[in-house]
Design a protein that fits this description.
14 strands; Aspartate Aminotransferase, domain 2; Aspartate Aminotransferase, domain 1; alpha/beta
Length: about 400
């Protein structure tokens, strides 16, 4: 197909390279965190249970629960650890079947296997969300469900919770990408029995590594607290009903997945930044989405009506672009400084289910496979300016025009 380049972009590309903004660095850590880290290093008080009360980790748990509107929170070493502890806290039998979306990160099925359970993958559509027909068909044969709000795209939680409540199936929310997202004005992560979040560097709150889980169920959180590594009577430093702890004292294995005080000190000052980051991240996403959606080769799935997203990246599907053109598109964008990840176009992408060799036989999920072969991902940190976002859009549009031009 012969394509004429957009004049505005072509003029930019003819004589000079569009300078790409840095979309990789995280936001600077607030000065308050630096001061607290220095204090902790001076004292050597890094273990969460050293203090009688009000350790940085304990304060983080209280503040995070209040921020999300949950009764309890438990900070742990990663979101993967939170997912693992969630399944263990549900006291599922060995080899229990746990349904997960086929579009998720490899850490999710890994957590299921680590918990002694079996992942059951369900189809996802072109909008990156769960195919509800496939979900409903598989639900009778599973004992629990993990809903990954992958890259911040929320599946229909009304329908999912209605189906799961009718079946008596507990729901864990993998909200690693969804801190700050709401569904009908309710924070994602508070809809299921347990919500799990990430503080890894590519998330809105950055501690390098770290995670947290929230729940309104004191028995679930008490089990998770003990298994996270609250040995002997350290569980008394958690604000959960003491009878819930007493029931499980010395009855559960310890996996030692605790968060340390240094990480909590880095996280806590960033919580106040969350509303701004959500606002700016949403504006950046919508600005780039509008530019891309105006071009015939890009399809940017729209949010569902009850959803208010908190994105720090953008996903879009390539339309009428073949495999060779896709490769040229990715290469051109990379030359201009923008990395485009096409989830299904590599042999080792951790979000393509057929690369999860640890599952054994690859399941037949043609709808998800087809989506992943053309679904693209580009980082859009909240700290980018409008001008930065326009340069990202210009590079992506120029790249696809170059790729499809004969």
């Amino acid at each position: 197909m012969q394509v004429k380049l957009d004049v505005r972009i072509a003029e930019k590309m003819r004589d000079t390279i569009i300078e790409a903004p840095n979309v990789y660095d995280a936001e600077p850590i607030p000065a308050g965190a630096m001061e607290e880290v220095a204090r902790l290093l001076a004292t050597g008080d890094l273990f969460r249970y050293t203090a009688t009360d009000n350790s940085p980790v304990a304060l983080l748990e209280t503040e995070f629960a209040e921020l999300l509107g949950a009764r309890y929170a438990l900070a742990v070493s990663s979101c993967s650890a939170a997912l693992f502890l969630s399944l263990k806290a549900l006291d599922l039998p060995r080899d229990a079947r746990v349904m997960i979306p086929a579009f998720t990160f490899a850490a999710v099925p890994s957590a299921v296997i680590h918990a002694g359970c079996m992942p059951v993958l369900c189809e996802c559509g072109d909008d990156y969300r769960i195919n509800l027909d496939d979900f409903a068909a598989r639900l009778p044969d599973v004992q629990a469900v993990i809903i990954s709000h992958m890259r911040g795209h929320t599946s229909d939680m009304d329908a999912i919770m209605s189906l799961c409540q009718a079946a008596g199936t507990p729901v864990v929310e993998d909200a690693a990408h969804s801190l700050g997202t709401t569904w009908r004005d309710r924070n994602i992560g508070t809809i299921g029995a347990i919500g799990c979040f990430s503080f890894q560097s590519y998330k809105l709150i950055n501690a390098g590594e770290g995670g947290i889980m929230i729940s309104d169920d004191p028995d679930l959180i008490a089990r998770a607290v003990i298994m996270s590594g609250a040995y002997e009577h350290n569980w008394k430093k958690h604000p959960v009903l003491q009878k819930s702890f007493a029931r499980w004292q010395n009855q559960l294995p310890l996996y030692n997945l605790r968060l340390n005080n240094l990480s909590a000190a880095v996280i806590r000052p960033q919580l106040a930044e969350l509303p701004r980051r959500v606002r700016d991240g949403r504006a950046n996403h919508d600005r780039v989405a509008a530019a891309l959606h105006a071009m015939p080769w890009f399809d940017v799935p729209q949010k569902l009506a009850p959803e208010q997203r908190a994105p720090d990246s953008i996903q879009f599907n390539l339309v009428n672009v073949d495999a060779g053109q896709t490769a040229r598109f990715v290469s051109f964008a990379a030359e201009q400084g923008i990395k485009v990840q096409v989830f299904g176009q590599s042999t080792d992408n951790a979000r393509a289910f057929w690369n999860w060799g640890f599952l054994g036989d690859t399941p037949d999920l043609p709808q998800t496979r087809a989506m992943l072969m053309r679904a693209c991902d580009v980082r859009l940190p909240a700290r980018l300016t409008s001008s930065d976002c326009d340069r990202v859009s210009d590079i992506l549009i120029a790249a696809v025009q170059d790729a499809v031009a004969d």
